[in-house]
Structure formats: C-alpha cells, structure tokens
TrEMBL record:
Gene3D superfamilies per record: Rhomboid-like
Pfam families with a match to the protein in the record: Rhomboid
Source domain of life: Bacteria
Stretches assigned to the Peptidase S54 rhomboid domain: 62-211
GO terms for MF: serine-type endopeptidase activity
Name this protein carries in UniProt: Membrane associated rhomboid family serine protease
Location of this chain's protein in the cell: Membrane
Membrane topology of this protein: Multi-pass membrane protein
Segments passing through the bilayer: 16-37, 101-118, 124-145, 152-180, 192-213
Zinc-finger is among the record's keywords: no
Main location: membrane
Length: 258
C-alpha cells in the first residue's frame, strides 16, 4: 500500500481557504456523527443531503450538489479526503488566490457530480464526499507541478518506507485507476464514485489551462522543469517503527457512494 503523506512544494502564503474547507468538513462530520449509531437515520440523512441522481432527474434537490461535498461516509473517508486536500490544496490556492480557489474547488465538485449523474440519472444511491472537488485540486496540481516530489508512505506487511515520487506519476496513476474503476463497476453499484473522481480531475485540468497559459504554459514548465518555482521543502527520511496490525477488520459495503 502506498499513501501520500506530504509534498516538497511549500506555498509562500497561508492557505486560509484550504484551512476553512478542512475545518468545515470536520465540523459538519462531527455534527451528524451521532447518526452513525442509527443506520436508518444515517441513510435518511444521506438521502436528504447527499447527491441523489433520481431526485435531480425529478427536478428537485439542487442544493445537494453543494451539500454532498461536505458529507462523508465514515472517518476513513473523511481522513483520506482531508489528507489529499491538506497536501495539494495550499499550492492550488496560491496559484488561484483565495476566493478564486474557493470557486474553483466548488465548481470542480459540481463537475464531478455532473459526470456521476450522467452515468446513471435514475440511480437511488446517494453520493457523499469532497472527493470530486478535491480531485479537481489534484488535476490542477498535475498540470502546474508534474515533477514536484510527493512523499509516499510504503506499507508492505512489515516494511515501512517513505519514497519520494514525482507528482505526475502519483496523480496520473490515481486518475487512470478512477477510469478503470468506473469502466469496471456497474453504474448502479454503491461504494466508490469513480466517475465523480474522474470528472472532478478533468474539470480541474480544464479550468486551470487558461491560467497556466497566462503564466507561460510550456514556458512556465521550462522555467522550473515542471517543479515548484521555489526552493522545495526538505525532510529527513527515517525508518518507521509502526508495529504490524494484530487483527483483521471486518468490511461491509456502504449503501452510498463516496
């Protein structure tokens, strides 16, 4: 298992919008966390505030195109999304500026929901999660900083390592995985909303192209070879002493998409 834990691309300003989005997602999750004790109540909540394609087809629930972006199916879902936003959000906020980045983020979330809706407009499975919007952030990062180094935590039974990998490989392989997942997963299945992830990523790249061109396009890459245009962050790589897990976890597919 490879998990991104940080990049070597520090921003030169405080990413206030990224911080606000992180806080908003955590606070919203905390507010409805008691519902996890009642599966029926939680399902009703997601049906009301998650993005339900059939409901949109019927002509209602348009507010859920935004609200679903701040809901998560469990702590792992929340943690994974916030990790990606934490790693890559600050650089995209620096590129766009604070308020434009917020608009960019939400529009990518809308595009993600749009592609997921297009794959199955009659679906009764609600979609929740910030994944689509964050996928847009990944798409923009992929365009601007393809050679920025991203530290990946390697977990292989008893082997623990931190390996620096170029962003184009990390994010490009992630995008390909979403496409393959979308093509191989039935449209009416629950679980991962692969097409939402792919749609958000594509939207992020497309929305960033005009800005990238104004910054010089290929000239921008030539000036910094696709790497951050400033001194990269340096970390000390140390072997982890994390112990091996002692028991297996039980998994049950969720009745919603994430």
């Amino acid at each position: 298992m490879l998990i991104p834990i940080r990049d070597h691309n520090p921003s030169s300003q405080r990413p206030y919008v990224t911080y606000a989005l992180l806080a908003a997602n955590v606070v919203v999750f905390a507010l409805y966390f008691p519902l996890f004790a009642d599966e029926y109540a939680l399902s009703r909540f997601f049906l009301e505030w998650g993005m339900l394609p059939a409901r949109l087809t019927y002509g209602e629930g348009y507010a859920t195109l935004i609200s679903h972006q701040f809901l998560h199916g469990d702590l792992l879902h929340l943690g994974a999304n916030m990790l990606f936003l934490w790693i890559f959000g600050d650089n995209m906020e620096e590129i766009w500026g604070h308020w434009k980045f917020l608009i960019f983020y939400l529009v990518c979330g809308l595009a993600a929901a749009g592609l997921q809706y297009a794959t199955e407009p009659a679906s009764m499975i609600p979609m929740v999660g910030a994944s689509g919007a964050i996928a847009g952030v990944l798409g923009g990062y992929f365009l601007f900083y393809p050679r920025a180094r991203v530290d990946m935590f390697l977990f292989l039974i008893i082997i623990f390592r931190v390996i620096p990998v170029p962003a184009w490989l990390v994010l490009g392989s992630w995008f390909v995985f979403q496409l393959l997942g979308g093509l191989s997963t039935p449209a009416d299945a629950g679980g991962v909303a692969y097409w939402a992830h792919a749609g958000g990523f594509i939207a992020g790249v497309i929305l960033c192209v005009p800005l990238w061109l104004r910054m010089g396009g290929r000239g921008f890459w030539a000036r910094c070879a696709g790497q951050p245009p400033h001194a990269e962050a340096q970390y000390r790589f140390v072997k982890s002493d994390i112990p091996k897990a002692g028991r297996k976890s039980r998994f049950r597919p969720s009745p919603w998409r994430r």
